[in-house]
Design goal:
Elements lengths: L12 H21 L3 H8 L3 H4 L1 H13 L3 H7 L2 H20 L4 H29 L2 H32 L4 H20 L13 H24 L4 H22 L14 H31 L4 H29 L1 H19 L8 H16 L2 H10 L6 H44 L7 H38 L25
Length: 505
């Protein structure tokens, strides 16, 4: 990639703009689907454990394909990769929009995922190569503004489209935009790539696919099937063993598919761990809040989307501000402040009740997003800043892969924690209720009591999961005290570093 786009006084803003629009569409499509899942279940007559594969399948394809992007970025031009990625995404969107059975819809989603898996690491790599270290925070902040715009409008737009039309309109709405973006790339992207003599190691691809895919599938299935299911622990064992073999193989290869030597750079290693922990914590609100507001409180999909809107907008607006602050003061202070806010607001989320007001939820969620906006981009950018330029494709691919894995792990753990707590609380409440029963209650009274117990138990399960998330985020806070402003390390093959940052914090 360094031969294709060099760091100059004037970055290639045209290329970056086209890539950002493509990535925005991919992000928007993801956030659109969440609120539509109940409608899809009803229309296609599938249950929750089946419909969740629209998310799980997407993560699986990303987990399998993203590790190969480091090779693809080094081998092919930005133009070629973008057109392939956007082409796959467009075909998948059209297919999903006309799906009349669940299998066809899932196939469309997985084709979409194969395109978006290439898009994000490609864009991140172009950004890293195009801007010097001292200006990278502001550039990444603007990138964050664009990327956070999708989660800002996605849930609200989805709620409105589903209520006014049909869930298929979510895909029909995206299709013409995706076609226009593909044509923009076809006519505006002109970069060429010198021929690079590297080959894709197919055994590494197989080991990576089985490794990351097995771990993602195992954790994603644990919530519905239980940890004692052979399907869950079997795929986890196979995934871990394959991943270990994959890592060992990469360490002994001269030109590895995914270079794990990037973990010898301490700030990158630290940022990687913090980002994984934060992603796990972030998924708590993304998953638990919709269950609380729609299942327990009966709030409509549109109102549920509107509830998340102010927080998402705030996070988007904060992104460029955080980027500029990062360039001036580094990532440590931002991470400490942001994580402290995240921990405090998450703790208050563990105190939800049936009387918690809609306004209270909006304010609490907005403050939580404000805290997270100060953590995600500065921490990951600081880590990538320490890598020599030739490791950028590997760093961005690794970050994207681990985000998928940690998201799946976080979701599975929180679903399991919520389910177990709900089950144990329901038993306790039922036992207590039976002790206080007088006379022979009617069938209607028993049904009402059962429903009340189930709702109280689920609320306790949700609150307990948020409480566990407080401790997960606290781990990231402790680690953030060790962050130092990264300077680009010397490349052992070149012998020099470049663009050294100012003093360490």
């Amino acid at each position: 990639m360094e031969q294709s786009i060099k760091t100059t006084k004037r970055p290639p803003y045209g290329i970056i703009a086209v890539l950002m629009v493509g990535a925005f569409i991919a992000f928007l499509n993801n956030t659109l689907l969440n609120i539509a899942l109940p409608s899809i279940m009803k229309d296609l007559k599938v249950g929750p454990s089946t419909v969740q594969w629209l998310a799980t399948g997407f993560m699986l394809v990303n987990g399998v394909l993203i590790p190969t992007t480091a090779f693809l970025i080094q081998k092919y031009s930005v133009r070629r990769l973008f057109l392939i990625a956007m082409g796959l995404f467009t075909v998948g969107t059209i297919l999903a929009g006309f799906a009349h059975v669940f299998g066809l819809l899932l196939a469309g989603r997985m084709i979409q995922a194969s395109g978006s898996a290439i898009m994000m690491p490609l864009l991140m790599n172009v950004m890293l190569v195009s801007f010097p270290v001292e200006k990278r925070g502001a550039a990444m902040g603007f990138f964050g503004l664009i990327m956070m715009g999708a989660p800002a409008i996605g849930p609200t737009l989805s709620g409105w489209l589903v209520e006014q039309f049909d869930w298929r309109m979510l895909f029909h709405f995206i299709t013409p935009i995706a076609i226009v973006v593909f044509l923009l790339g076809l006519f505006l992207l002109k970069d060429k790539k010198d021929k690079v003599n590297i080959r894709l190691d197919m055994l590494s691809v197989l080991l990576s696919s089985v490794g990351f895919g097995g771990i993602l599938y195992g954790f994603s299935s644990a919530g519905s099937k239980g940890w004692d299911s052979p399907q869950v622990y079997g795929t986890l064992i196979v995934g871990v063993l394959s991943l270990a073999w994959f890592i060992i193989r990469q360490l002994y290869q001269e030109k590895p598919m995914l270079n794990f030597r990037i973990y010898k750079y301490p700030m990158y290693a630290l940022s990687s761990v913090i980002s994984m922990v934060i992603t796990m914590a972030m998924f708590s609100a993304m998953m638990l809040l919709p269950i609380y507001v729609q299942t327990l409180r009966g709030i409509s999909p549109l109102d549920a989307g509107l509830m998340l809107l102010p927080g998402a907008i705030l996070m988007a607006l904060m992104s460029p501000i955080t980027g500029k602050l990062f360039d001036k003061i580094g990532g440590r202070i931002l991470a400490i402040i942001g994580l402290t806010i995240t921990i405090v607001t998450t703790y208050f989320f563990s105190k939800l009740s049936f009387d918690t007001t809609y306004t209270h939820l909006i304010i609490l969620y907005s403050l939580r997003m404000f805290g997270m906006s100060m953590v995600m981009m500065p921490v990951s950018t600081n880590g990538l800043n320490q890598l020599p330029a030739r490791f950028y494709p590997h760093g961005t691919a690794m970050n994207s892969t681990l985000q998928q894995v940690s998201g799946a792990i976080g979701t599975a753990l929180l679903v399991t924690i919520m389910s177990n707590r709900t089950e144990s609380t329901a038993k306790e409440l039922a036992t207590d209720a039976m002790k206080h029963l007088t006379g022979q209650p009617t069938e209607a009274a028993m049904a009402a009591m059962k429903q009340q117990i189930e709702m109280k138990a689920m609320l306790e399960g949700i609150n307990f999961s948020f409480l566990v998330t407080v401790f997960v985020a606290a781990v990231a806070l402790v680690l953030s005290f060790f962050i130092k402003r990264a300077k680009q390390a010397e490349d052992p093959l070149v012998g020099t570093g470049s663009n050294e940052s100012s003093k360490q914090n």
